């Protein structure tokens, strides 16, 4: 047993015997009063004061770490697992799906310990998430899994921290992370950090982003800036668009330096004119005069008409010149649906080729990767589905349906709680075990909780295939750092 577990065991034992300590103290006080019945009233008050101090010391238990989590009486004496989910209302179907997954995880027997009790609270009921969290506090739950959304997490986070109850929230909004409240959803920051790491290993160093002007777009843009800085890369160019075809075309033309590349391909100088040698200037002047004489001839002159017609035909039949690569070699996108189609059309029109640029996108692309054959070679970061095979089988047997992807989160959170419950002998959920450096295995891959409320995940890199669909790339020989928190 490690030092943490021994400490928790001693604290639990102290807590368990508080009643006995009280009885002994009271008994000693009674004996003292019996023996010293005839002593002064002042001495009697002094002894009573000593007894009171002893009672306070016994009942206070261990001191808690920042956030009131590790070593507190709440976590040491309350093995119950609270679950905050919307079980009714608009998200009721999803909430019950996640409830079923959590029950499955917590039904796994660990040794001879009795299973932890699951204390379920509906965040869509009267009073919402705040009332549900208060019920969990009143029930002295030792850990809370959920709630589902960032709004609910924001409302219950301070309550949980004050009560010393750790929270594993299912939101992916990193703004909700704090010591004692972990953001457990798969975040844009995790995805972008993994993509930048992989692209850097591939040899790409100039990043850019063309993103929708939406919360997801800005989250991915901010994540790209941070990931590039953490990887010691130059700050990326980030452009946001409002989603109209015109905005997409003009925005990509600017980002890809289209006009400059066209001018370069046409042999036009984009800088200030330079002085020419005298002989070259004279030759160009003679050619210019000859051209002017030809233009001045009568339109009916048979010697003049054919060259003019040839030039017109050449001009009309000319195809756009092949342009050089844009000023970036990795481009992050985040659009889906029709907006993504417009972005891909604009990339083609601006000659941003996948042979020059690694396209990268959100994990959402995995849901329709079969339709993305036109951007073969593009990447997105997501959990390896092979890791959830056993979970899907067990869930399907028990519930007669395939689990939704978000059910993975509640299953992994339940497995985490069960693991820590077992490690403490059923005594609680201390923060030092929740944040153990070796992390935990999950159906969405290995993960580690950090002290500041973030979750580190080892996501896979998926590459879009020419005929559509995607395949996971093998891990690089050099270790890829897990997306981390500062």
TrEMBL record:
Sections of the chain in a coiled coil: none
Record organism: Acetobacter aceti
Signal peptide feature range: none
Name of this protein: Leucine-binding protein domain-containing protein
Family from the record: Belongs to the leucine-binding protein family.
Region of interest called Disordered, as start-end residue ranges on this chain: 285-321
Keywords assigned: Signal
Domain Leucine-binding protein positions: 80-244
A Pfam family that the UniProt record links to this protein: Peripla_BP_6
Ranges of Low complexity composition bias in the record: 302-321
InterPro entries: Leu-bd, Peripla_BP_I
């Amino acid at each position: 047993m490690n030092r943490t577990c021994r400490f928790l065991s001693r604290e639990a034992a102290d807590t368990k015997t508080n009643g006995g300590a009280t009885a002994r103290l009271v008994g000693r006080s009674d004996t003292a009063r019996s023996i010293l019945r005839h002593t002064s009233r002042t001495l009697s008050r002094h002894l009573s004061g000593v007894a009171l101090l002893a009672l306070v010391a016994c009942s206070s238990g261990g001191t808690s770490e920042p956030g009131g989590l590790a070593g507190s009486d709440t976590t040491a004496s309350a093995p119950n697992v609270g679950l905050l989910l919307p079980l009714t209302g608009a998200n009721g179907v999803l909430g019950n799906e996640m409830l079923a997954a959590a029950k499955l995880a917590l039904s796994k027997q660990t040794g001879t310990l009795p299973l932890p009790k699951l204390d379920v609270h509906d965040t869509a009921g009267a009073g919402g998430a705040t009332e549900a969290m208060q019920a969990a506090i009143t029930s002295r739950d030792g850990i809370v899994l959920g709630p589902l959304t960032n709004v609910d997490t924001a409302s219950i986070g301070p309550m949980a921290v004050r009560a010393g109850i750790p929270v594993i929230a299912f939101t992916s909004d990193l703004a909700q992370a704090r010591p004692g409240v972990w953001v457990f959803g798969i975040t844009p920051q995790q995805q972008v950090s993994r993509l930048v790491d992989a692209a850097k290993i591939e040899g790409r160093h100039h990043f850019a982003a063309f993103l929708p002007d939406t919360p997801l777009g800005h989250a991915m843009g901010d994540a790209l800036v941070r990931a590039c800085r953490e990887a010691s890369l130059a700050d990326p160019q980030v452009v946001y668009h409002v989603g109209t075809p015109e905005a997409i075309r003009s925005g990509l033309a600017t980002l890809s330096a289209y006009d400059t590349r066209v001018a370069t391909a046409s042999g036009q100088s984009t800088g200030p004119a330079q002085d020419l040698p005298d002989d070259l200037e004279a030759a160009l002047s003679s050619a210019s005069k000859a051209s002017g004489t030809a233009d001045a001839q009568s339109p009916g002159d048979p010697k003049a008409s054919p060259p003019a017609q040839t030039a017109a035909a050449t001009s009309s039949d000319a195809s756009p010149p092949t342009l050089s690569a844009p000023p970036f070699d990795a481009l992050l996108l985040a659009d889906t649906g029709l907006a993504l189609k417009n972005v891909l059309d604009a990339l083609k029109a601006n000659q941003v080729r996948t042979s020059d640029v690694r396209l990268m996108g959100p994990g959402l692309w995995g849901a329709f990767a079969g339709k993305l054959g036109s951007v073969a070679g593009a990447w997105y970061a997501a959990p390896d589905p092979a890791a959830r095979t056993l979970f899907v089988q067990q869930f399907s047997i028990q519930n007669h349906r395939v689990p939704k992807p978000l059910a993975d989160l509640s299953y992994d959170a339940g497995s985490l709680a069960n693991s820590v419950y077992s490690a403490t002998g059923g005594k609680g959920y201390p923060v030092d075990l929740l944040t153990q450096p070796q992390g935990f295995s999950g159906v969405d891959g290995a993960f580690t909780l950090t002290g500041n409320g973030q979750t580190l995940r080892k996501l896979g890199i998926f590459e879009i295939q020419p005929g559509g669909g995607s395949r996971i790339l093998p891990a690089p020989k050099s270790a890829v750092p897990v997306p981390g928190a500062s």
